Amino acid sequence: MLALEDEIKSLIIEALNLEDIAPADIDAQAALFGEGLGLDSIDALELGLALQRRYGLSLSADSAETRRHFSSVQALAAFVAAGRSK
Prior knowledge:
Helices cover 55% and strands 0% of the residues.
């Protein structure tokens, strides 16, 4: 799972054009929004599209489940892993 978390960290950096940040700088358990990484709703849309393109995931735009998946890198990795096993 750690390799997948690192892959998702790299995807976040690439999809959102985050400069001056490395995958190692992102805490897999930290919040992606608010006081964590500081992403906003536009970032969520861009990240969602990147995840759909790379992993073929299906995400609903505004659901509690989607918000839960986007809570941290660790949660995203679990969501991607579950999607791969289907």
